[in-house]
Amino acid sequence: xxxxxxxxxxxxxxxxxxxxxxxxxxxxxxxxxxxxxxxxxxxxxxxxxxxxxxxxxxxxxxxxxx
Length: 66
What we know:
The protein has 66 residues and is mainly α. The protein has helices at 11-37, 41-62.
């Protein structure tokens, strides 16, 4: 299990993280589409899961910047 840490960030820093995560998430979504087109089911599942996990993290962070 992952260790929980406490970290102090400014809202600007959180916004930068969210922006970077959005770009990363888009990459995984595109990779999943490409894998789907190439019938690589294991890769589709892996990339989709990564995009979902990034989305969940962005949801946690967005509450501090909206």
